[in-house]
Amino acid sequence: MQPITVAIVEINQNQPVSVENFLQHNDTKVELLADIPSNYDHVRERRQTLRNNEAAIDNAVARIKRLRPQILLINANQAIDEYCDLLFVLRYECPDTQAILIINEAVEENYLLETLACGARGFITDNLDSLNFSKVIDAINRGEAWVSRKLVGKIMHQIVSASRNDFIEAGFDSSC
Amino acid sequence: MILLASASEAILFRWKQGIMDFSPLDFAYNFASLTEKLIKLQPEILLLDYELLNLNSERSILELINLRAGIKIVVFSPELPNEIEWKLFKAGIKGCCQNNIQPEQIKRVINVILQGELWIRRTLTNQILDELVKVTHEKNRVDKAVNELLDNLTRREYQIATLVGRGESNKRIAQQLAITERTVKAHLTEIFRKLRISDRVKLALIMKDAMRSPEQTLQR
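Predict the joint structure of the above. Result:
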């Protein structure tokens, strides 16, 4: 069986994530494509210009396009807006790559909703054990999302409200 | 209150076995009695046999939700294609189970739904995210277009549009702004023209969204 290819990307993060920790010893199911370096040199210069961030996204997209991983792990220990741009670009540039965020407990739910709306397929915490990581990879590779039931409920509420608004707008008519 | 709706005694018996801890329960044996009981009993949860819905199951669900706003509907069905099940969720159901679900599992379904979560197959979650991306993209596009159109309103027109968004009548708007109702109507006609809409319901929906948007609030 072909291994599932996985790569990691991070932009402006100050806490590294080691994907090796997620992998089981002698794991043959997952192949880690390690050509995407972190950009910790950016962390030293925290006051980055927008151009630098754009360059970081372009750089990441170019590398992802070259590596073509099936699953992309995004280190999002620090919630940054640029990841929404990255996810948005990836949807068009690398439609076969499924992106999931690696987050810590402090990440706000609204940020998660925003990234899911930009194309993320789910999120995992940075302390996930290898057994559960394997389950996540399998699920994403099968074409499922990895999102909590609670969040699925909230997302569905948004979708139902939007379709009901369409229904109301189509069905009602009144005058001045 | 949980309402159980099916034409099959065997199915109702099975459901009842699973939810013995919950009470009170009531039963409907056809779609007509179901609609009656929804209005009369105002149940919190409806366990619904898919066979009871007519050919346009999506519309039937919308009809039921319109009769009892906030009702949490769980549909029990044979294995449905993803597309049909997805349409039912989009119409507003909270759960979908196969008919052969174990009775004791039904209790778990109800508890999950009472906590505001969905009982949905994992294989449909990707579809949910695809739809979220689509809905968000469409909303951003519409918001942008509406904001551009709202920028064309004069200060007075925007005041009137805001009051319509708050549900005020023409008479109340006229009183608040110390103008005649005829002037309010004239302004509304101009607002409709500029926003390319035909009625005040659409204006109210637009303004409700616009009032929530920080961009539009800051601009005015």
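The CA atoms of residues 9 and 101 of chain A lie 10 Å apart.
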